[in-house]
Amino acid sequence: MTGSPAANPSAADLPERLAKHTVRYSDHGSVNWDDLTPMMQHYVAIKEEHPHALLLYRVGDFFETFFQDAITIARELELVLTSKDAGKAIGRVPLAGIPHHALDRYCTALVEKGFAIAICDQVEDPALAQGLVKREVTRVMTPGTVLEEGMLSASRNNFLAAVVMAADHWGLAYADVSTGEFFTTQSRSLKQLTQEVMRLQPAETLVPTNAPDIITLLRPGEPSEHLPDCLPRQFCYTLRPQAPFTQSEARQRLLQRFRLRSLEGLGCEHLPLAVRAAGGLLEYLEDTQKSMQVPLQSLATYTLSEYLVIDHQTRRNLEITQTARDSTFHGSLLWALDRTVTAMGSRALRRWLLQPLLDIEAIQARQDTLEDLVQDGNLRQILQQRLKQIYDLERLAGRAGSGTANARDLVALADSFARLPELAALVASAQSAYLKALQMVPPELEQLGQVLRSHLVDTPPLYLNEGNLIRDGVNDKLDSLRQQVAGDQQWIANLEAVERQRSGIATLKVGFNKAFGYYISISRAKAEQAPADYIRKQTLTNEERYITPELKEREARVFNLQAEIHSLEYDIFVQLRQQVGQHTDCIRRVAQAVAAVDVLCGLAEVAVYQGYCRPHMGQHRQIAIEAGRHPVVEQLLPTGFFVPNATALGADQSTGSGQALAGTQPRSSPDPDLIILTGPNASGKSCYLRQVGLIQLMAQVGSFVPAQAASLGICDRIFTRVGAVDDLATGQSTFMVEMNETANILNHASEHSLVLLDEIGRGTATFDGLSIAWAVAEHLASDIRACTIFATHYHELNELSGILDNVANYQVTVKEMPDQIIFLHQVRPGGADRSYGIEAGRLAGLPPSVIRRAKQVMHQIEQHSKIAVGLRRGSRPKSSPHKPSDDTVAEPVEQLGIFDA
Ligand SMILES: Nc1ncnc2c1ncn2[C@@H]1O[C@H](COP(=O)(O)OP(=O)(O)OP(=O)(O)O)[C@@H](O)[C@H]1O
Questions:
Q1: Do 357-470+577-609 and 476-558 come out as alike in CATH topology?
Q2: Ligand 1 contact, 681 CB (< 6 A)
Q3: Mind listing the pLDDT tens digit for each residue in 176-202?
Q4: pTM here?
Q5: Ligand 1 centroid to 117 CA: how many Å?
Q6: Smaller CB count within 10 Å for the chain: N or C?
Q7: Of all protein residues, whose CA lies closest to atom 4 belonging to ligand 1?
Q8: What is the percent of the chain with per-residue pLDDT over 90, rounded to a whole number?
Q9: Are residues 103 and 138 in contact, defined by beta-carbon separation less than 8 angstroms?
Q10: Helices and strands: H and E segment counts in the chain
Q11: Which has more pLDDT, 437 or 529?
Q12: What is the mean pLDDT of residues 556-572?
């Protein structure tokens, strides 16, 4: 498993060092270096160079592992653990082997389990080797550096991250080797760091050995005072030597890599921690990718303030990429909005949803394009048809750049390039300046596509060393070799007919097997008639097999020529692949443009079919939504079942920030900053709350929104506190989780934030809970003045609207029937005075006797309730929202005797 701390020793002094020491070969013992066989000495030396990785060492047709690695691999992959002779004095040591053709499958399984793997392959033909076959580590695979198609999810990035810290500042770099994205940032708040790591969900995180605190901070199950919440359950980290993370070394590496004199152009010259993280990450890639080039684009520096901040709780509560209950894609916002048709578009949409924008012009540019695509259904559909024909350019370019692409990958690239001009012409024909600006077919790619098509056959095989890759007419030598081989092949093909005639044996056959190659087969009964020049090679029950000198001569020539052809074809292919590799940056730029078109077409498609509107965005703090709907619940319910509801928050007429919706009259009074939302259980409070959050988020992504009309300001953050669960991993109780989250909101919300609170204070005694809920609502409304919706079953909170001007009461209505209630799901002004919790209990199947008793108890509680009176006695005077003086603190409320008769 990655994560064991050790620096890589220098390889140069290994033999001497090892000669003097014993070699620790497993958890169970150690051996003397000199006692090992030469192959084992080599194995151990390589293993010492890769102490973190499981070493797979090629021996014949197998990749073998020894010592502790063998025990680990046998356990993890359920392989047979056997043993191998490691030298006379040592005897047999543990061995587990993987057949070479199944390497990918087993590597996938190991990487998914979080292991790093070093692959030590034979780098010379064993038949030509003098002594020990030459072997080298050709690849180190780790969860964050895999490129193989089968190990990656098409719809999400596979990030490798690196984190450094200095005092309370931190630097974070991340890269996706398969797509070439490479970003870095630095900031101060540790909470922000954990949130950013949560957003990225890296497959692997690099941490310098001198900063193990980072692991404590980021790993789940290790409570930290900075951590409001748990991090990914499978946090996979790798400790790395410190040197590459030092400022000077990291900076130098970045300058060299991007051939620069200063990092100014990359935007990180003055961000030392961002530079250190990025340099350390780059060094790791260079170290693990060995001979392969590290296929990264240029480094982009970003600041967290460019994006709407959505913390982990909010991402979970709003179910942006997966549901909160069972972490599935189905039922998430991404599920509801993803109508992309390419893997690039699908990944881009996920990124857009996790990083909504703050810049109103950028939002409006996306909106303008969407509007065009919404209005021009024809264009949208043709664009989507064309997009479907384009392969995953980002990852194909990545594989070409790293030298792992096969011929089918290059043909897929060529096919995609061929389709780009048509897509580009469509994009250019669109009204939108945003689309027009997308550079989709640089001339160099057109030429590259032509080269690939003219060199590669239409449907090449998967493997590169079996020929049939390169077209005729590409290379004179190849053509001549093919002609020569064709002559001999034809001679062999004709041989059966020729020999039948010569021998007079009508049943004579020409066959082929791996042991002898070509042979002539005659039944035993006719063996007497075999011509004199036949040389008997094998006798079977019913047949005799022969060869002739000429057959063997021709056969040998065919084999040799074919080997020459395969090797020449491979060389030509590698040159083509290198040529493509030189264009990876350009291909990726195109891929990003294609992805953007795909995302926008998809969003336009949803907007049309779900009846979304273009929200009016402004630099104010108003949230005005007419007939808004929850984008996901609406799609999960049968058509027409979802009840739309309006929202009006934060418009301040005195400052003129309120923006009336088209077709509506300006409001006579300003909208509240805080809404107390009450209503029966299961009436739709949480749904309404989330709907407002999702509409705001979608609007800042640039999407249209599920509403009849909307006018929205730009929010700096969206906070949510919805429900609560015990967080056993960090040892926090339900109530403590709730309080931590609430504290986070109160400490960070501003008047430009949207705060959505569902049920604060439920996890403790009623009066403690109510008091906290009251004080939190009061603080949000009068001190912070953030746009807030506060859903609660504490009906006493409705009193606040009589005290603070910027608080209003809304309720989700129900219709009371004699024996049941009907949920109308309509949000209307006014506070509910009942929760109908007992009715919900009845619907859930509580026994009738319990329901009857509950009704009696409730009646008694209602008789005795003085909570509201108590709060009113100690509450703030109704005026403009402001802090009360200390002498207006609420008096203690009388305790209820609920079992009093
Ligand atoms: N506007 C709506 N139109 C149609 N159905 C709705 C609407 N809002 C909510 N629902 C349905 O009602 C169910 C309950 O909604 P929700 O969980 O929001 O209730 P709640 O008031 O928060 O309940 P509780 O107070 O018990 O937590 C939802 O699962 C959804 O199917």
A1: yes
A2: yes
A3: 988 888 999 999 878 788 888 888 889
A4: 0.77
A5: 49
A6: C
A7: 642
A8: 44
A9: no
A10: 27, 29
A11: 529
A12: 91
Determine the 3-state secondary structure of 202 from DSSP: coil
In the reported structure, the alpha carbon of residue 824 is separated from the centroid of ligand 1 by a whole-number distance in angstroms of: 10
Cα 118 from Cα 107, distance rounded (Å)? 10
- Residue 93 phi, psi dihedral angles, 5° rounding: -125, 160
**What is the model's pLDDT at position 346?**
95
Q: Is 679 in the pocket of ligand 1 (CB under 6 A)?
A: yes
SS3 628: strand
Residue nearest to atom 31 of ligand 1 (CA): 633
Query: How far apart, in whole angstroms, are the C-alpha atoms of residue 789 and residue 759?
Result: 11
Point out the annotated binding site for ATP. 679-686
Q: How many Å lie between the centroid of ligand 1 and the Cα of residue 170?
A: 41
| Residues 612-840, CATH architecture | 3-Layer(aba) Sandwich (3.40)
Instruction: Kindly report the CATH number that applies to the domain delimited by 357-470+577-609.
Output: 1.10.1420.10
Fold topology of 154-306: Nucleotidyltransferase; domain 5 (3.30.420)
Q: Is 179 in the pocket of ligand 1 (CB under 6 A)?
A: no
Give the residue, 152 or 705, on which the prediction is more confident: 705
Return the pLDDT at 731.
Answer: 54
At 363-381, the pLDDT tens digits run 999 999 999 999 999 999 9
Domain boundaries, the chain: 14-141, 154-306, 357-470+577-609, 476-558, 612-840
Q: Is 643 in the pocket of ligand 1 (CB under 6 A)?
A: yes
Atom of ligand 1 nearest to the CA of 812: 21
789 and 689 Cβ atoms separated by less than 8 Å: yes
Residue 231 has pLDDT above 60, yes or no: no
Tell me: pLDDT of 471 over 90.
yes
Pocket test for ligand 1, best of 325, 633, 790 (most atoms within 8 A of CB): 633
- What's the rounded mean pLDDT across residues 126-152? 82
Top CATH class of 476-558 equals mainly alpha
Average pLDDT over residues 5-23: 37
Torsions phi, psi for 579 (to 5 deg): -60, -45
CATH dotted code for 14-141: 3.40.1170.10
- DSSP strand E in 759-863: where? 787-791, 807-816, 821-829
- Ligand 1 centroid – CA 703 distance (Å): 25
Task: Give the whole-angstrom CA distance, residue 71 versus residue 95.
Answer: 8
Ligand 1 contact via 686 beta carbon (within 6 Å): yes
